[in-house]
Design brief:
homodimer; about 350 residues; alpha/beta; Aspartate Aminotransferase, domain 1; Aspartate Aminotransferase, domain 2; 2 domains; 12 helices; globular; pyridoxal phosphate (chains A, B); aminotransferase (chains A, B); histidinol-phosphate transaminase activity (chains A, B); pyridoxal phosphate binding (chains A, B); EC 2.6.1.9 (chains A, B)
Chain lengths: ~350, ~350
């Protein structure tokens, strides 16, 4: 690496997102996308925006979206919402906002390793606190420490699909003296969330994405829900025009389509239940999921060979291996046909 | 400001972009947008992308765009190009890549004050080297110093619209030991650029945007041209999916429409020449422009009152005031009708 770069970057490894594939050729169950096309109102909004004023800069604060999100989620007002170019950008802003060089962030283990990359880029350190065997959090997760400036909790978690109860999250937040960010990328597939806690404690912040439940991974839109004084200060860090006019139009239409969301989530959760039953029948240990994927481990431990067998048969799932913890398969909830094909191949393997 | 944030952020002021206005009501000549709609091929690409796989994550490296850009600009290959969510994001990556907390970046004065904000966010410092009276750069601009990790040169510059010759830029780059980023946001309106220097010196990097000449400010797309080893390392800093599927499709179509670009630039440059002549007749001192705006100063010094007079008459231009240097009006090149209206009001004022 050329010596022009900051030393913190020379030793870091980049985050590697899930494999992409040419559309149509492969059944893609590896990056937790929604297998269904987005709401027709969203497609219409994009096509209208294309002939709008795209030669003009977009609204820097995505005002229309903030209103739609506040309405859909029952927030006190749009000033509780900050829009971002995917929740990845929101997470980047949070790390840049709260964690300086030489400071520290905390995450549970196993969970979303992107958080570690964000710390590395910032020249900060990270510490991982293992989940208990029942996927609850050890008391250690809520302990304060001198350099600790940010705690990140994916909830529901990946790869496990498990969820930590709102009461437990509240207790952690209250014992910490730094922000606790609850990453709710998958929360629309669960039966609870932490929005209430945001109103009770300025140190609780919730991130959301339109990439999963709303079927808009290609559009890059995520947002933060936090108290207005937090939003106002974080906005200083963001690029002036971080969301484009077309994605603002798409995201606004998506948030205004809560009936569509309810339907698609019901459909995916029904498929998930079927996956859980069948995988259990096939001898897998299945962790009950609150997300649009299922984490499963087979007693024979042949996870990597199953991953490769599926891939050879044009089915892409995620093989994940966590040092000192274990490995398994994370299978996104697809359409019923896709999941039938996947389950059939897994049956054939065993 | 709540004490949860990094200290570097508590003292900084946010960057304030130019005023926005509801479309249609106002003649907007304040943020250097292209007044013409984008190429029809771009609109078509967006509308097609809307019904494509937007439920799937986009290509993390925007491969199609990189090929189109390399072809259009005669670069050795796509690995010389890094795509970003506007050139703002590219500039953010560059500052994060090269400048650590407590280190320093340099910019000329007066120029683009966003660079200072980016240093502030990073907890770094910035120093400004004044342009000479003839808009050339003082030797000081090329001097090395211990903490100096990045030098930024908007070329053509804003607010002046002036350009520093390629030979002069090469000499500065050779005397520095840190990267020199040439921000060529406006270069399509000029008659030279610094792409050749990138191939000669790994410390020279060029940023471009589709917001100005291509008429796509609403789409947020910019890119970096640098040597492949620089691009590969900077890619580690970017969000995994920093450009969305729709803007990649739009930007790829735009880069493949070089004939359209040539025509719209010729039209705008003809309008610019007319603006320069008429403003001179109206008694302004006009700095000859190589960009899609004109910087003008009137001997009577009544710039702010002209700005307000125009605004009261539904014409928005940029009043800019640079401490220890002076003030003036920066007027974007609009359509002929828009410029006629603006010039008529300025004539009426005087």
């Amino acid at each position: 690496m050329t010596s022009l770069f900051r030393p913190a970057l020379s030793k870091m490894l980049p985050y590697t997102p899930g494999e992409q594939s040419a559309p149509g050729k492969v059944i893609k169950l590896n990056t937790n996308e929604n297998p269904y096309p987005p709401c027709p109102a969203v497609v219409k909004a994009i096509q209208e925006a294309a002939t709008g004023n795209i030669n003009r800069y977009p609204d820097p604060m995505a005002t229309a979206f903030r209103h739609a999100a506040a309405d859909a989620l029952g927030l006190p007002g749009p000033e509780w919402v900050l829009a971002g170019n995917g929740s990845d950008e929101i997470l980047t802003m949070l790390v840049r906002g709260f964690v300086g060089e030489g400071e520290k962030l905390r995450l549970p283990y196993p969970s979303y390793i992107l958080y570690r990359t964000l710390a590395d880029i910032q020249g900060a350190s990270w510490e991982q606190v293992p989940f208990n065997d029942d996927w609850k959090l050890a008391a250690e997760f809520g302990e304060t420490s001198d350099k600790l400036k940010l705690v990140l909790l994916p909830n529901p978690n990946s790869p496990s699909g498990t969820i930590v109860d709102q009461e437990e999250v509240a207790a952690i937040a209250n014992s910490l003296d730094c922000p606790l960010v609850v990453d709710e990328a998958y929360v629309d597939f669960a039966n609870q969330n932490c929005l209430e806690l945001v109103q009770q404690n300025e140190r609780v912040m919730v991130t959301r994405t339109l990439s999963k439940s709303y079927g808009l991974a290609g559009v890059r839109f995520g947002f933060l829900i936090a108290q207005p004084q937090i939003i106002a200060n974080l906005a200083k860090i963001k690029d002036s025009y971080n969301c484009d006019a077309i994605s603002i139009a798409a995201a606004t239409a998506a948030m205004s389509s809560q009936d569509w969301l309810k339907d698609v989530v019901a459909k995916l959760n029904a498929t998930r239940a079927r996956m859980e039953t069948k995988l259990t029948e096939l001898g897998f240990h299945v962790t009950p999921s609150h997300a649009n994927f299922v984490w499963c481990q087979h007693p024979d431990g042949n996870h990597q060979s199953r991953y490769e067998y599926l891939k050879a048969n044009q089915i892409l799932v995620r093989y994940m291996q966590f040092p000192d913890w274990g490995d398994g398969l994370r299978i996104s909830v697809g359409t019923d046909d896709q999941i039938d094909a996947c389950l059939m191949m897994l049956e054939r393997f065993s």
